[in-house]
């Protein structure tokens, strides 16, 4: 477990620091004063100041932050802000700075995807078998067919087919596929399996490995990142619609357990497999953090972007004390949510 905790800390730091570095680099580019950029949390172990910014390493190796002058919107009444303070920058400079955090999460995820594709390749969406009596067989899909679209969405990898099946609620599916160069279109209804509590299309695959060239690596690296985005968005949608339970949500404790289970499953296959699996987890977390922060909720980057876009449209900002109170309320709500998720994670260990 100690190794897994260390691996999780490394993953978490990479994901969070890349997010904060996005805010940092764009703020600097736009002349916004960064008070402090630090890695870790808690007491400061060492620090130095350069260009008006304090760079620090904290005691607890978890996360980091980019502190902008006046970013909380509550200091503007004190009259103590410098010309480079966040509120004094143009609205588009502030929008770019806030958006840069999630953007860098996507960039980080793409770089990780490139590593995974280069080292592992991808499995093509070709059918290696059809379940007897299944939905696919009933509409004429055969072994060797290559699925190209599902419900109008392009299919690039076998994972795209698997995601469509796993997130299906039994709705009718329009599937386009190729057979010996000819295109075909069929409509099928996934079959429900009560034992697994899921729907199945009735196809097998994930066996035709494509070892990617350099151009293909950049191409499929994007598809891998796109897949993670789609999986995260669909999971959030299912959670909101009540199709997922609270046990499907994990906080830091749950993620440590997931990292530990993954580490135990692959450690006997060599260090390279451990590293690649940890990169895959980091990719998923980076995408999740980027998407979560873009949600238009108070205290998140998405919530701040809502206020900034309103300012851009109306030509003047929302009163800082009102915006500050909204974000404070959002922060308190998220703290309560984090406690509930933490308690739920702990209870999973005793079931």
Mean pLDDT: 88
Number of helical elements: 9
Q: Indicate the overall shape.
A: globular
What percent of the residues sit in helical stretches (DSSP H or I)?
40-55%
| Cα distance spanning the termini | 19 Å
The secondary-structure class comes to alpha+beta
Assembly category: single chain
* Strand order in the sheet with the most strands: 6-5-7-8
* Largest sheet, strands/sense/barrel: 4 strands, antiparallel
| Low-pLDDT segments, ≥5 res | none
Can you count the beta strands? Answer: 12
Number of domains: 2
The share of residues in extended strands comes to 15-25%
What integer value in Å does the Rg equal? Answer: 23 Å
The ordered H/E elements are HEEHEEHEEHEEEEEEHHHHH
